[in-house]
Amino acid sequence: MTGTPDGSAPAHPVGTVLALNSPKLNGIRRLTALETVRARIAMAVDLGLLSPGERLPQTDAIAEALGVGEITVRRALSSLCTDGVLERRRGRNGGTLVAEQPPRGVVDAAETYHGQTAEVHRLIDERTVLECGIAHLATRGVSAAALDELDALVAAMDRAASWAEFHSCDERFHLAVARATGLDASVETYGTVLRRLYAYYLPYPLAALRESNDEHRALVAALRAGDAGGAADIARRHVETLHRTMFVGLMG
Q1: Confidence bin at 185 (pLDDT 50/70/90)
Q2: CB neighbour class for 226 (10 Å; exposed up to 12, middle 13-18, buried from 19)
Q3: From CA 231, how far away is CA 180, in angstroms rounded?
Q4: DSSP category for residue 86
């Protein structure tokens, strides 16, 4: 390890990386996978992000979007049906849907998420810093192949049939931008922050997600044009939106 002139360890770079990669055991990390799925879907219903009568995606898509196993998703959906938050319908238009009059506040684990406002805002700010730098640097070395990959992901998000499908493409898009910098360390650090923030992700209306995809499209255009300042500004606005659109900005 490289030290400072007086032989002591450097104060910031190493400590920062360790802090990013060794998160403390906070509230949601103490919840089981089943509890987190129940809480995230119930909160989306409570906040109006999932509307009465809205059909949920297939269990495999939900599992991928929320980072859990399909069995966990099936158990969570079944228990939310028992709670009256969701309901099952048979037939051609069947599936798992939000109940027409779902009860509010029935999932105790959701309170753990409610108490994480400061942690979520801190993660958003960390992501803002990293994303602006990544967008700026990516304009210098982004390849034609990388731009093609980003274009394809933007097109996939335009076609996404559900929030779950969109979310999976969104994660791949942002990691692809990070890889375009050519700096492996930035990809690792950014990926850690992104995954920690995604642990708080809730289902969102597809219309709002498609609007955010316009910013993805603008970012790709800035990268293609080599506009470092424009790319960084688009990235900043894209991430700062989370302060008011993630659940911590909606609970008031």
Answers
A1: confident
A2: exposed
A3: 13
A4: E
Q: 3-state DSSP: the chain helix, strand, coil percent, rounded to 5? A: 65, 5, 30
Token couple for 19? 């802090």
Q: What does the alpha-carbon distance between residue 9 and residue 3 come to, in Å, rounded to a whole number?
A: 5
Quote the CA–CA distance of 172 and 156 in Å, as a whole number.
Answer: 11
Q: Give the residue from 198, 231, 199, 192 showing the smallest Cα distance to 30.
A: 199
CA distances, 89 to each of 51, 56, 92, 93, 142 (Å): 16, 12, 9, 8, 48
Distance CA 38, CA 210 (A): 25
pLDDT digits (tens, 9 = 90+) for 113-166: 888 889 999 999 999 999 999 999 999 989 999 999 999 999 999 999 999 999
Distance, in Å, from the CA atom of 184 to the CA atom of 137, rounded to the nearest integer, reads 13
At 114, list the tokens.
């409610």
| CB burial of residue 182 (10 Å; 0-12, 13-18, 19+) | middle
CA separation for the pair 39, 107 (Å, rounded): 6
> Tokens 């850690």 correspond to what residue?
192
